């Protein structure tokens, strides 16, 4: 399926995707920009989610490659989480195409507010490793698929959930947690995208154009993570959370 969108609108969406890719690579929450932009361009909601996954996958891929090459994260250490997050996103994507996501939409502002408050007030958040609150097995087999389901069902803020969950529950350093979040987010994006494609809910012309912008933004954003560390990530997470809450409150 395709819609008639002007070249100007597609270029605007590509620029928005570049900015979203930059923000996503650092703090997550890029969907806060791309999803409203697609809706503003009169793209139907389910097509918006599917097209957003197409462009988001390229950003997650670019950020993941950078993180792996820089040695921030080794995928083999989180291979179980990669698989379970993928499965969770597939289930969430099938569910969102079969039912209205009213319940999760009501919960999102509270979840995001909790992340913002925790990030703002937690002392030395992710600057050094801390004692884990749950086992690695519980994180990879329970928390990861739950976040994956959320990504397939709704999406915005998934990167923050993966990163901050790894910091809060596993005691990881925030740069390492952010690197892992990019790889896990790539897995959930791919899982979700496959089933949006099977459902015929992707605008290819728009999505492919946005992929270019997303990949460029993610490339530069992931390099900023490696250079800036927790000093850069922490304030951006708080700002993104504030922006997302504002968006949901304002409707």
From TrEMBL:
<feature type="transmembrane region" description="Helical">
    <location>
        <begin position="232"/>
        <end position="250"/>
    </location>
</feature>
<keyword id="KW-0813">Transport</keyword>
<feature type="transmembrane region" description="Helical">
    <location>
        <begin position="193"/>
        <end position="220"/>
    </location>
</feature>
<keyword id="KW-1133">Transmembrane helix</keyword>
<protein>
    <recommendedName>
        <fullName>Probable membrane transporter protein</fullName>
    </recommendedName>
</protein>
<keyword id="KW-1003">Cell membrane</keyword>
<feature type="transmembrane region" description="Helical">
    <location>
        <begin position="80"/>
        <end position="100"/>
    </location>
</feature>
<feature type="transmembrane region" description="Helical">
    <location>
        <begin position="12"/>
        <end position="40"/>
    </location>
</feature>
<comment type="similarity">
    <text>Belongs to the 4-toluene sulfonate uptake permease (TSUP) (TC 2.A.102) family.</text>
</comment>
<keyword id="KW-0472">Membrane</keyword>
<dbReference type="InterPro" id="IPR002781">
    <property type="entry name" value="TM_pro_TauE-like"/>
</dbReference>
<dbReference type="Pfam" id="PF01925">
    <property type="entry name" value="TauE"/>
</dbReference>
<dbReference type="GO" id="GO:0005886">
    <property type="term" value="C:plasma membrane"/>
</dbReference>
<dbReference type="InterPro" id="IPR052017">
    <property type="entry name" value="TSUP"/>
</dbReference>
<keyword id="KW-0812">Transmembrane</keyword>
